[in-house]
Protein: DUF1853 family protein
Amino acid sequence: MRAKDCYYNHVSALPENTLVSLHSPAVRDLAWACFAPPLLHTAQLPCTMPVTNCALELTPQRREWLLQLDRQPRALLNHLAERASRRLGLYFEALWHFFLLHDSEVELLAHNLPVRGRKQTLGEYDCIYFCQRRQRAVHLELALKFYLHHRTLACAAQAHENWVGPNTRDRLDLKLQRLLQHQILLSTTPEGARALEQIGATNPLLEIELKGRLFRHIDSRAPAPQAYNPQLPLQHWCRDNEYGDHLQGAKVAILHRQQWLAPVSAASGVTVTVAQPVPTRQAELEDRPFQVAITDAQGNEQGRLFVVPDRWPDDQP
Structure:
């Protein structure tokens, strides 16, 4: 790998290097989904109600549960098979549902609970759970996002508008607007309050857990957006025609979409190769953005690269 590539930071590990101890890809994804640092500090974002990140931390008991599950993952695999979906966000939610169903300190009261009124659906609660430690019901909204820095708007350097999805109709500012001004406030509406009364979960605490990664261009030093969690290093993106030059000699693993969550490790079973002058685009990846894990000699991930077609974002609708 060339010297310029040294600004790939090592992927932030979970407390006590939990991911290093896990071998099952599904259990690794579960640990990452529920216990990796969130993208943003939710309490620093503007909202009309007090909102925090999820308060369910990786305790020694939960770490031991993950290790036991890693040895016998059948229950998790069956749970995921029953909810199989090509949509990565639904896979992420299914991982969370499994955790909330099996954790001894919480009770999952409902998930994907619709709120109806005026002969239409007004919204949906992602998760409602009861926390034994706090003796309160909690409304938890979940989101999994991967955004690339592309500053084309006349806005501040740290503005959320600068971060867009591979499909540029998806932007961080729009997602936060939806989360903070609608989804997390459902319990404050008469219809939302009635839906919670029916499951005995009135006046819940409010939590938002946004997981994923942010990528800036390989030649950019753009600042992180407002409320970004400094525990997470910013990753990088490039276009097809920049790929080989930037990763000359590096060991990489081209990731299918279902492998975008937890960092890969030597035990993940992912094929590691030396980066080619142009990325090997398999048929299902042709003209689509995809992610690459940059690994060490043993196959442990050291950073993540998002590769987009040469005409991105101009080829977007």
Notes: Residues 238 and 307 are 5 Å apart (CA to CA). The helical segments are 18-21, 25-35, 60-71, 74-82, 88-102, 172-181, 190-197, 240-246. Confidence is low (pLDDT under 50) at residues 1-12.
